[in-house]
């Protein structure tokens, strides 16, 4: 991919207090290589590549002591306008729009249920260059206790239209933008979710073998939070890296 349509997840990055460990763990797990930004103001921000194509990033947290976390970025033609829509829809501007050199312009927001996400207005840095292949981002998913509120919020901010479908005992939502489903939503409403769970955006990386990847993550110091299991889209697992950042991996089922 050389560009990503506005309103579509375009990038993910990891904020971690132990960048050295992260830049060893993920390359070992996914076959990534890392390129550290030469800009002294970047604090060692690293762009991970798979087969020479950018797939994700990692850098230090915005505030000391912040838990390690993966963040989802949504592409935008105008971050400042997006900030206005977020506030009008009842969300929060956590970090006001700002420039990152010549790379792009970004801001950090939260939806009304507290799920944080970033918006990226690309310039020199367009975002991820590979999607859906092993070792690359394959899906972004909101888990929230307020799916009805999320449907209103994201429709106003990004123009997403929700499409519901049954998945076991819950209703899963796909976010449609034009002719594509660009992300998903899972309600955190049943007995499987802890009480008072904050809403959050999760990230999925495609892998060739879910079971082998989960086992390898554990060998490298990570934790298997949800063991490999089958879902209609493939076989997935939820993992924590050595610093506790949660992410999912999925071996995608062959298309029908």
Give the helix/strand layout.
Blueprint: E1 9-15, H1 19-30, E2 33-36, E3 46-50, E4 53-59, E5 69-75, H2 79-88, E6 92-100, E7 104-110, E8 116-122, E9 137-144, H3 147-158, E10 161-167, E11 170-177, E12 180-187, E13 200-206, H4 210-219, E14 223-231, E15 234-240, E16 246-252
Parallel strand pairs: 1-4, 5-8, 9-12, 13-16
Antiparallel strand pairs: 1-5, 2-3, 3-4, 6-7, 7-8, 9-13, 10-11, 11-12, 14-15, 15-16
Properties at a glance:
single chain, 256 residues, alpha+beta, 8-stranded mixed sheet, 4 helices, globular
Short note summarizing the structure:
The protein is α+β, with helices and mostly antiparallel strands. The chain is built from four helices and 16 strands. The chain is globular, with a radius of gyration of 17 Å.
Description:
The chain has helices at residues 19-30, 79-88, 147-158, 210-219; strands at 9-15, 33-36, 46-50, 53-59, 69-75, 92-100, 104-110, 116-122, 137-144, 161-167, 170-177, 180-187, 200-206, 223-231, 234-240, 246-252. With 256 residues, it is an alpha+beta fold. It has an eight-stranded mixed beta sheet, covered by helices on one side. Strands 10-11-12-9-13-16-15-14 form an eight-stranded mixed beta sheet, covered by helices on one side. Strand 14 (223-231) and strand 15 form a beta hairpin. The chain starts with 8 loop residues before the first strand and ends with a strand.
